[in-house]
Every structure is written in C-alpha cells, then in structure tokens.
Amino acid sequence: MEYKVIYSSKTGNTEKIAQEIFYALPGNSKDIVYLSDNTVLDDTDTYFIGFHIQNGTCSQEVMQLLLDIEDKNVALFGTCGSGDINDYYHKIEQRISVFLSDSNHYLGCFLCQGKMPRKVRNKFEDMLGSNKDQETVKQMIQMFDEGLIHPDRQDLKNAAAFSKDIIQQLKEA
Comparing C-alpha atoms, which of 41, 60, 135, 57 is closest to residue 97? Predict the structure, then answer.
C-alpha cells in the first residue's frame, strides 16, 4: 500500500480533515483508519497521521503511534480550537514531530482551527468573573466563536492542497 491515513478525532473536526486528505490522495492503493488499540502499522510507504490538540499537544495514543513508526514517509495533520495566533501552529508541530524517529522522512504538518464543545465556552464565561486577565478571556471567547464554523470549506481545500503538495514532494524525491 502506498498511503494510509490514520487519525484520532474527539469532536469530528480531525475526521473531516482526514477524509479530505484521503480523497485527495491518488490511486486506489490507500486506506483510512480511525486510531484504535487494533491499529496496525504495515508495509505502507507513506502515513498521514491526524490528531486533535488538547493542552497544546496530541494524545498519548498518537504519541505512541508516532514513536512506533520506522523508516516511513510521515505527514502530520490536526485540528485545534485556537486559530494560528503567534505561531501557535508551528509550536504544536514542533512539540509533536519530535515523537517521530529520525529514521522517518518527515514531510510536514497541516493544522487548522476546529470547533470546540460548548462546555469550553461555558468555562471561559465562568472565567470572566475571576481574577484572570479579562481581555485574554474575552479573546478566548472570541476565538471559540470564530471556531464554530471550522473546519470550513477553505480549511478542507487547504487540507487537500497539503496532501497534493506531499505527493509532489514524494515524486520529486
């Protein structure tokens, strides 16, 4: 098999991106699977690994998967509640890509905003009456509200373009 998309998705946002990446991959020698205890690494040449961001990083399951991959082409993708503020996405990529062995050929990372559960906004609203920096809390609420429409059509187009760019990289290598 040439390509495998493996993803973890807590709210469905990353699943949407995973499907878009999968459909953009050429040919029939590809697969898409939800990350579970039964997920097996095989003779696939290129992996696209997807995750949701929580507390600035990916889940333990995704970390372990990345640690287990050896001698493969690997691209990362994910969604988080925050927009790309102050190079936040780059910091996330750096935190997660370190779990990949140097034996792999790292191809890059695609991240976009995704909607968060309503309970997150409720938590932010509760913080308005606390001693927290009120301006920061208001920005967090605004970011939550902006995320309600994500991933949107443009995010999906960008995810497809990311996968096509990866394929082009592989052809040129």
Answer: 57
